[in-house]
Predict the 3D structure of the following.
Amino acid sequence: MKMSQTLPATLRDAPAEAVIASHRLMLRAGLLRKLGNGLFAYLPLGLRAYRKVETIIREEMDAIGALEIKPTVLVPGELWRESGRWDTMGAGMLRVTNRVGQELVVSPTAEEAATALVRDELASYKQLPLTVYQLNTKYRDEIRPRYGVMRGREFTMMDAYSYHADEASLGETYERFAAAYRRLFARCGLSVLTVRADSGQIGGSDSEEFMVESAVGDDTLILCPKCGYAANDEKAACADDAPEGAATALSIEEIDTPSVRTIAELAAFLHIAPRSFIKTLIYRAENCALDLSAAPGGAGLKREPNGGVYPEAFFAVCMRGDLDVNEAKLAALLKAGGVSLACDADVERITGAPVGFAGPAGLDSVPVVADKTALALHDAATGALKKDRHYIHVEPGRDFTPFLMGDVRTAKAGDRCPACGSAFYAKKGNELGHIFKLGSLYTTALRVTYLDANGERRTPIMGTYGIGVDRTLASVIEEHHDEAGIVWPLSVAPYQVVIVPVKYEGEMKAAADRLYGELRRRRVEALLDDRNERPGVKFTDSDLIGIPLRVVAGKSLPKVEIRLRGTGETELADIDAAPARIAGIIADALAALRVRQ
Ligand code: ATP
Ligand code: MG
């Protein structure tokens, strides 16, 4: 490609809204332009890099035997009603109605579409295991799209769905995906961490996320320096803290605590540490699948027919005063679609007191859910369900009994690893890919069956896998850039070589044209800077765009200068020998990326 013919010019500055390096550089180097909030267009250079990521993903998916399909992006709403997600996906899922009133979903993910396809094709156990994938457009009405294509509204996902007769087969495919992900991210030049994950709205059991470290990451990763335990903080467990103190013989006592509401104020007032308090938060859970018929306040709750979910249920969640509730863990414990803090009016209705005086002792309007840390306390303080009153000398078990207990605390740096007891450290990260074992949730809901070897009808189990293509591309730039611009790994670079004649005329033009022709003949992806610009401008642009190799035809002809963008190393090569030398450097670099795993 000749630079004079490609779109568009590079930019000296990026718009102020581009706050992270990859977003700024994608705009400045002319890879990307914004169309609307969370909506982008790749320009020719950006599209080439994007296609390379897609190709690497496709090659690795094909290599593990996944079969590429391409369903439409619009999927009939009735499939989402069958799975039950029409009601649970919320406003993040875009729905449209066509001229005959048919409801359609703009795919945010495609478990339903893939499973409906497989339902029609699957007849016998001999077809299993079966894995399909697509590289296709997704739409999610993200509340706050940001960081360019890192979190857009429309983006491309590689999403794969596997179907199995048994757990062993699902486990094998799951491991194959994990290995393929490691290979493909390594080929893109990315250093990824694998962490245990919450399986979120989708349900399911085993699940891992592939993360890149990022100062602006949306996720917090909890890592053990010793045994390698690694988990998203939505999932991270921690070892139980050593027991502290002893049970008190003193009876629970109600005391006056005028104008004291927060844990900090109460700690100062009573001269004790926040960790001696049982803080109690009132949570609202949506679509809770627990059986609450025997729970406090449960009898009167509205429930879907036939033992179905409770659309809305409230809980009092007890936690040691110095710790935070983890809403993802809480939602999982409550088997709920989602949880959120109750509004002030609900807190007042439930506790009979203003916000700030909730406590588990004597609370009978809602079930009490206790984190393990709250139950491990002795001689604790809590709210007394009355304005300006607290209890002291509270003994869990004696003064209150929870309906449910579990681990719902947010693990953080310094907490101890459940596997080996070492102190955790934490990092911010961004999720590039995800693998889940799903079980039979969707195959049951969509009534997928096959005949086993004995001619019996069975339901397959399922795995689901996803990678954000655009986010992967942006992450490559996050990991590979410097002050001057992008430093593409050869595997993802839009072009492998840029040829820069100091002046595009005379002997230099002839040399540049000759190199360009010879490199293309060798199938090296070459860009020729044939613009009538000053050499400084061309060098600045080639650094900004980040093409891995630069060949300069200038004063030293018939020798040309080969420069590596990554290290700045240069060498002179005779113009006749340069194409072979360049092809060799490229082959070596690509081979190195393939083995880096
Ligand atoms: P996140 O927690 O970042 O919102 P997610 O858990 O919703 O992601 P999945 O449903 O697991 O994401 O989707 C698979 C992959 O799709 C993610 O790992 C990510 O790479 C990509 N992805 C998800 N949402 C977006 C988005 N808004 N923009 C770009 N890529 C996205
Ligand atoms: Mg995810």
